[in-house]
Amino acid sequence: MKYLHTMIRVSDPDRTIAFLEVLGLKEVRRMENAAGRFTLIFLAAPGDLNAPGERAEAEVELTYNWPTEGEAPETYTGGRNFGHLAYRVDDIYATCERLMAAGYTIHRPPRDGHMAFVKTPDGISIELLQEGVLPPQEPWASMANTGTW
Amino acid sequence: MKYLHTMIRVSDPDRTIAFLEVLGLKEVRRMENAAGRFTLIFLAAPGDLNAPGERAEAEVELTYNWPTEGEAPETYTGGRNFGHLAYRVDDIYATCERLMAAGYTIHRPPRDGHMAFVKTPDGISIELLQEGVLPPQEPWASMANTGTW
Q1: Residues of B annotated as part of the active site
Q2: Is there a contact between A83 and B25 if contact means CB atoms under 8 Å apart?
Q3: Mean pLDDT of chain B
Q4: Cβ distance A78 to B81 under 8 Å?
Q5: Which of A82, A142, B10, B88 has the fewest CB atoms within 10 Å, measured from its CB?
């Protein structure tokens, strides 16, 4: 028995993929099902990748349900039973800097040099954990939280 | 960068652990924080385990927020942005049989010998995927769905 993936629903796949790519994930494969009117897109962190085209060791699966023609896509909200997805990163400051430069909010900045929280466009919380701990560093050390995560 | 875990909140850790153990997961480690009044419990599938006590390759983290003394624990509901956790299993019929014998509902039975859905006590959907495909087999082949997943 082995973990395969966590599936999240996305209202706009391109927007979510853009966010996840800035975070550092790579698209592994995708499957379009025109009859079922959905698209599945699998992404993984570089440290989980296998050979190109092969399933990665751990993936996040995006499900995009195609809206009825002429209608807006479904929008998604969260519930409290799900908490977050967590990834280990090599340099939490570099990751957060990249995300901020791309216009994303660091909801819980890495004040302690170890932990940060960000969110996908549909509100899925992502925890970033530094391998080890970096010395506290500005602007992160005095950056306040924003909203919830 | 590497996937670490998916965190879910649990209203009753023992009840969730009992379910996940019948599913096939093992507890890897736990951390009690009396000051913060929470307990974190990490479980993993046998195929993701490393040496005893070490972090597994992919984990599910249970967060139990201790209720105020004399009060009931928080109850959790779900949202549509989160879909499910998926695990590969060696024998999907054996896994589902074990779960049913322990009194759990197979929300989406493995009619096709490949895919099933079950849910944790707090409503987190879990997808079971057979390694390959097994020949269709009763009672699964003609078992109806129950509820949503």
Answers
A1: 127
A2: no
A3: 97
A4: yes
A5: A142
Whole-structure pTM value = 0.96
Beta strands at B115-119 and B125-130: parallel, antiparallel or unpaired: antiparallel
Pairwise CB contact (< 8 Å): A79 & B77: yes
- Side chain identity, residue B145: N
On whether the CB atoms of residues A120 and A20 are closer than 8 A, the answer is yes
Q: Locate all alpha helices (DSSP H) within A54-138, ordered by sequence.
A: 92-101
d(CA A93, CA A134): 9
Say if B129 is an interface residue toward chain A (CB within 8 Å). Answer: yes
* Average pLDDT of the residues in A40-47: 98
d(CA A119, CA A10) in angstroms, rounded, equals: 12
**For A16, what's the count of Cα atoms within 13 Å in the CB-facing half-sphere?**
26
Which candidate from B79, B83, B120 shows the least CB-CB separation from A7? B83
Q: What are phi and psi of A6, to 5 degrees?
A: -115, 130
Reply yes or no on whether the pLDDT at A125 is more than 90: yes
| Angle, alpha carbons A30-A25-A27 (nearest 5°) | 15
Residue type, B42: F
